[in-house]
Prior knowledge:
Oligomer: single chain
Structural class: mainly alpha
Shape: elongated
Protein name: Helix-turn-helix protein
Organism: Barrientosiimonas humi
Amino acid sequence: MAGFLAGESKLALSRKWQVSAYSIRLILIEAGVAQAGLNLSERQVEEICRLYRAGVSVLEISRRTGVPDSTARMVLVERKVEAPKPGRRAPR
């Protein structure tokens, strides 16, 4: 985090630590340092969160909403949406 706050890019940090830029982005979002910067409406974000809480998988959320699964994951991380309880099934 210190490197990012000092002005290092996510790409530079990913090379330095030998992890993906996606991993760096997730770490920064979880730490509250960076926003996901997603171009989604609040309605789309709420729908992604609602479906996930209902037990729908990220891939299925992607299919239903037309939002890439990586973007849906970023929304869930940014909003700190907890995983559904085991055994809970999604509505069909």
